[in-house]
C-alpha cells in the first residue's frame, strides 16, 4: 500500500518537473526568438481565421441543431443495422463518421463527446467512435495539400482514397476495443429499417429538450464558437512550438533518428526533417515534404498519408481538450492514429498505380490535362474564396457570439 502511494507520488513529481521544464523552455525560447515566434503565431492565426474557423463553424452549428432536434437519433435508428456489425457502435455513430469526413478535424471528436454527454453512447462506444471519425476534410487533402502544395489534383484522389479507406479499416479494427473489459450490454437489433420508429425517437428527443428554438440556436452558435476558439489557440501554440523546436536545434537533432528509420524502409532520408515537423503540425509537414527535391512522388505520398492519419500533435491536443470534458479516454484515440497512418501509407502503395499512374482509372485518355486543370482551378478558387472572405466571416461570428453572451448576462 505504502509502495503504491510512493510510486504515485514519484509519478506526479516527475510530471510536475516535466510540465515545469516544458513551460520554462517555451518562455525562454520566446524571449530568445521573439520575431520568429511572432511570425509563427501570425501564420497560425491566419490559418485559423482564414480557413479553419469559416470552414468548420457551419458544421459545428449544424451538428448542435441536428442533435437538439432529434435528427441524429432519427439517423441512428436507420443506420443501426450497418454501424453495429461493422464498427460495434450505435447507428448515431454514422452521423459523426460522415460529418467528420466532410468537415475535418476535430469535428468527429466534438460529435462523439456530445453524443456521450447525451448518453447516446457508452464510454467504450464513444472511444471506438472517436478513433475513426476524426478525419481530414477533402478541402484540406485535395485543395490545400494536393493542389496548393503539389499543384496536382490527381494526387488528391490517391491521398483521399487512402485516407478514408484507412479510416474505415481503423474503425473495423477498433470495434474489438473494450470487448473483454466491458460489461456493457449491447442492444439487440432486428436488422430492419423502421421509419416509424426512427420518427418516434426523433420526436421524443425533441420533446425532451425544454429550450425554446431561439435558445437552441444561441447555444449552438456559442458552443461552436467556444470550441473553435480553443482550436485556434492550439493551432497558434503548435505553430510557435514547431518553429521554436527548429530554432533551438531540437528538431534537426531528432531528425537524425528519422533518417535512420527512413533509410531502413527505403525512403529518401531528405524527408526526415519534414516528417518530424509533420508529426507536430500537418500543414507544415505536408508543405515541407512537397518542397523536397526528389522525383519520387510515391515516397512523398506515403509520408503525407502517414501524417494525415496520425493527425499531428496539434490536432491531437485539440481532441484531448474536447475529450477532457467527458470520461472518454485519449489513449485509444492515440493508438488509432498510428494505426491509421500505417494503413493509409500501405493503401497509397497499393493504389498508386491504378489511381495515379494509370490514367484509364480516371477515364481521361482524351483530355486528361483539361480535366485536371479544371479540378485544380475549382479547389484553388475555393481556397482563395475562403482566404478572402474567411476573416470577415470569423469576425462577424465572434461579434454575434459576444452579443448573445452579453444579452444573456444582462437577462440573468
From TrEMBL:
Entry keyword set: Membrane, Transmembrane, Transmembrane helix
Keyword rRNA-binding in record: no
Nucleoside transporter/FeoB GTPase Gate domain residues: 51-149
Record field: transmembrane: 12-31, 51-79, 85-108, 129-150, 156-176, 216-238, 244-262, 301-322, 334-352, 388-406
Protein name: Sporulation integral membrane protein YlbJ
Species of provenance: Virgibacillus halodenitrificans
Gene: ylbJ
Amino acid at each position: 500500500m505504502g509502495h503504491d502511494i510512493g510510486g504515485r507520488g514519484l509519478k506526479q513529481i516527475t510530471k510536475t518537473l516535466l510540465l515545469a521544464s516544458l513551460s520554462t523552455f517555451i518562455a525562454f525560447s520566446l524571449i530568445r526568438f521573439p520575431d520568429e515566434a511572432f511570425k509563427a503565431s501570425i501564420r497560425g492565426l491566419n490559418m485559423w481565421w482564414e480557413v479553419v474557423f469559416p470552414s468548420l463553424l457551419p458544421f459545428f452549428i449544424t451538428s448542435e441543431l441536428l442533435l437538439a432536434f432529434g435528427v441524429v437519433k432519427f439517423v441512428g435508428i436507420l443506420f443501426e443495422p450497418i454501424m453495429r456489425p461493422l464498427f460495434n457502435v450505435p447507428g448515431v455513430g454514422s452521423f459523426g463518421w460522415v460529418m467528420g469526413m466532410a468537415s475535418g478535424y476535430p469535428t468527429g471528436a466534438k460529435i462523439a463527446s456530445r453524443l456521450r454527454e447525451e448518453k447516446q453512447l457508452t464510454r467504450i462506444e464513444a472511444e471506438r467512435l472517436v478513433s475513426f471519425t476524426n478525419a481530414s476534410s477533402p478541402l484540406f487533402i485535395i485543395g490545400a495539400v494536393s493542389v496548393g502544395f503539389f499543384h496536382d489534383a490527381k494526387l488528391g484522389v490517391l491521398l483521399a482514397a487512402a485516407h478514408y479507406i484507412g479510416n474505415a479499416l481503423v474503425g473495423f479494427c477498433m470495434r474489438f476495443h473494450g470487448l473483454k473489459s466491458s460489461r456493457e450490454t449491447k442492444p439487440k437489433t432486428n436488422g430492419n429499417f423502421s421509419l416509424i420508429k426512427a420518427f418516434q425517437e426523433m420526436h421524443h428527443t425533441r420533446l425532451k429538450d425544454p429550450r425554446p428554438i431561439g435558445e437552441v440556436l444561441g447555444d449552438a452558435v456559442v458552443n461552436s464558437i467556444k470550441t473553435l476558439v480553443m482550436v485556434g489557440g492550439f493551432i497558434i501554440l503548435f505553430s510557435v512550438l514547431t518553429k521554436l523546436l527548429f530554432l533551438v536545434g531540437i528538431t534537426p537533432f531528432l531528425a537524425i533518428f528519422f533518417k535512420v528509420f527512413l533509410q531502413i524502409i527505403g525512403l529518401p532520408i531528405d524527408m526526415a526533417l519534414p516528417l518530424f515537423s509533420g508529426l507536430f503540425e500537418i500543414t507544415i509537414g505536408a508543405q515541407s515534404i512537397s518542397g523536397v527535391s526528389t522525383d519520387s512522388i510515391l515516397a512523398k505520398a506515403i509520408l503525407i498519408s502517414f501524417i494525415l492519419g496520425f493527425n499531428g500533435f496539434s490536432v491531437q491536443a485539440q481532441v484531448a481538450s474536447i475529450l477532457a470534458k467527458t470520461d472518454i479516454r485519449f489513449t485509444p484515440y492515440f493508438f488509432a492514429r498510428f494505426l491509421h497512418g500505417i494503413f493509409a501509407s500501405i493503401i497509397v502503395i497499393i493504389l498508386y498505380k491504378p489511381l495515379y499512374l494509370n490514367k484509364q482509372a480516371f477515364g481521361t485518355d482524351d483530355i486528361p490535362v483539361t480535366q485536371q486543370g479544371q479540378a485544380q482551378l475549382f479547389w484553388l478558387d475555393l481556397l482563395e474564396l475562403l482566404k478572402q472572405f474567411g476573416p470577415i466571416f470569423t469576425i462577424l461570428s465572434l461579434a454575434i457570439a459576444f452579443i448573445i453572451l452579453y444579452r444573456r448576462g444582462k437577462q440573468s
